[in-house]
Please model this.
Amino acid sequence: MNQVVLKYLKKQGYETVSTDYYNWIELWQNWWRNEVDFHKFHDQSGKERKLFNLGMAKRVCEDWASILFSERDEITTKAQTKEQTQRNNEYLAKQLKLLKVYKDLPIAIEKAMATGTAGAILRVKHANVDKQGNLSANHRTKLDIIYVGASQIIPLRVEHGQIMDVAIVSENYVKGEKEFYIEIHNLVYKEKLQKEVYVISNTYLNEKGKEIEKEGIAKNYWINSSVPSFSILKPAIANPLDVSYNNVNGLGFSVYGSAIDQLKACDITYNNFVMDFHLGGKKVFYNKKIVNTKTVQRKDDKGNIVEEQIELYPDDITRQQWKTYGDEMANLKDNPAITEYNPTLRVKEDTEGIQFALDMFSFKCGLGTEYYRFNNTSAKGNVTATQYVGDRQDLMVNANKHRKNVDEFISGICKAVLLFGRVLFQETVTEECMVSMTDKDGFMVDTETAKQEFRQDIAQGIRQAWEYRVKFFGEDEATAKAMVANEEIEDIEGE
Model:
């Protein structure tokens, strides 16, 4: 975190998170980018080289994002009345499409899993602000949503692990000079309304920490509600580093924060696999007696011309040449002039090493031990992601914990959209509602839960008994109907 920004916040009276914590965020972010010093090394000649690597830090976050949300998921609200619910859902669906929320959410989730925290900020563009800081819309006013990473988020007040007040920091270059944009959200008590509401302030600083006036940017404006216009997402993992910051950190912990060693193991084993092939080519050794030499001139490091002897091999494509010898070649049987070396590649050992490293890594990241399985001859063979989730309860437990946090994150975004719709655009919607996410693929539901829900639908007449056998037993429709001709629901429950 930039010291210019922290110094400004300190002057404003904010006790911010220790800058040491952002070093951890930088470490996790570097692994996600696959740009870490661990991959760099120097060979015997001093030349810098880089390990061949798998880049599993980013991959595991991509996979968690795919598990936790997809564009098929449905976001809906439930208000006090049916009519209010309908108006909410119609307005929300329209705004979520305009803001491209379904498209961008997986990226935000991926970054949260990588660096421990991500945020979404709902902003208003081209609105009117009076002297009292009250907003009003005109024909150009519209909403915008910005997603930010952990390195941009500075918790200012945390209660029970939840960020109440926050500063969002961005860096921009204007005419070649760096500027810092600080957006502060404060929940304060407003006497006029007799309740706590959010006030948002915007500040621009130059590299020296001096404030910059910006035309068209409101210094302060009020959101007359305790519903924040920001939402924070963290993995459902207890933060072991939080103890060092008196449990007031408010930031999260990377999904691979405790698996750095396993990341290294994945890259070491994969590098060994690649290098075995890289160095495992056929080699031919020549007796010096059949190798000719040639004198060439080159420049040394100081620019001086020096002479150097280079070897010309008899099978060189530019010069096919063999030398004949007399008695000196009499012992070719015991000491041949040409010897071949064909190394044995350790494919089996290398792949087993990579697989073990991947198993350990996926286990440490909460995906179970067999999520990254490349052995098609294993007992499981090739299975679909849904089949795998149904079989792996450890993954399901962790996925459902993370999904609850994702649901709260999305709920925060939706309530902010509804809030601005009511106070700014005078829409007949309300943020005082429940927001729910429906998994349309059924990916987050384990097999036993899905069976139970299916049986309940049969009992209520929503589904037919034969559909149960088609879905869970894999029978075709004709077979399933014949099997349940005289079958009761109780029989299905006992299977």
